[in-house]
Write a structure and sequence with these properties.
By secondary structure, the protein is of the alpha/beta class. The protein contains 9 helices and 9 strands. The two termini are about 20 Å apart.
Length: about 250
């Protein structure tokens, strides 16, 4: 489960709702520069007391990864988050890199390829996989991008809500991306009449979780499903119910 609350509250709430791990935001919530080696040991100890681990880190970007402005700074910060993930015994960093540029945008395509090649190589050195959260990209475009990078591990953070809001079917997208999915964000959405979408609690959106979990099982997926509930009046309650809902569906 993931939350924007302070770290101590997150650990407590994750334990109370029956989660197995926690995803932290390495940009705003748990910054590498603000947690000493002692602090890292204390965090892992606090998690261990509740049978929790750090499932992954997420690193939100304010600009697309291929945007040339302050690009070196952005890449350095992602690399730092990847090292931080290793220190916290997590093996995945999720990152929404912005929409993949069209083939006609050759400069942007080239920059994105070079940056991902650099980050994948860094991931290979530190033992952490960068997992890209799509931004409306078609599965074929995501596969083409990932196949063009061979310097180290690189994967997709599969987010059913993002699929719904970009008018794509979550189950068929998951089947298409099965070879490259390295993290799943358990988030769902409903499409509104005007074509836009809105996030809803897990179990209520346009997502067949029984089929999605069956596909993940077929894939022999062994990674994390991270519940990410940002909106609503009771995000902690929604996250707790989502943990139980997914366990019930998986056990049925």
């Amino acid at each position: 489960s993931r939350s924007s609350s302070n770290v101590r509250d997150v650990v407590r709430m994750a334990g109370e709702c029956g989660a197995s791990g926690v995803q932290f935001d390495a940009r705003q919530q748990l910054k590498p520069s603000e947690l000493s080696e002692t602090g890292r040991r204390q965090l892992l100890h606090a998690l261990g007391e509740r049978d929790l681990s750090v499932a992954s880190l997420t690193f939100p970007l304010r600009r697309a990864l291929h945007d040339p402005e302050h690009l070196d700074t952005r890449v350095a910060a992602i690399k730092q988050a990847m090292q931080f993930a290793w220190d916290l015994k997590a093996r995945v960093v999720t990152c929404r890199i912005g929409r993949i540029p069209d083939e006609g945008e050759s400069a942007a395509v080239g920059r994105l390829h070079d940056v991902l090649t650099d980050l994948a190589a860094h991931g290979n050195r530190v033992g952490v996989t960068l997992s890209i959260t799509p931004s409306g990209d078609a599965p074929a475009n995501l596969l083409s991008l990932l196949e063009s990078v061979d310097s180290g591990p690189l994967g997709v953070d599969f987010d059913p809500a993002e699929r719904v809001m970009s008018r794509q079917d979550p189950v068929s997208s998951l089947r298409a991306l099965h070879a490259v999915v390295t993290h799943v964000t358990a988030r769902v959405a409903l499409r509104d009449a005007d074509g836009s979408g809105r996030e809803t609690p897990v179990g209520r959106g346009e997502c067949d979780w029984a089929e999605l979990l069956a596909v993940l099982d077929e894939m022999n997926y062994s990674g994390w499903l991270t519940i990410d509930r940002k909106g609503g009046d009771d995000p902690f309650g929604d996250a707790s119910r989502a943990v139980q809902f997914l366990r019930n569906v998986a056990g049925s």
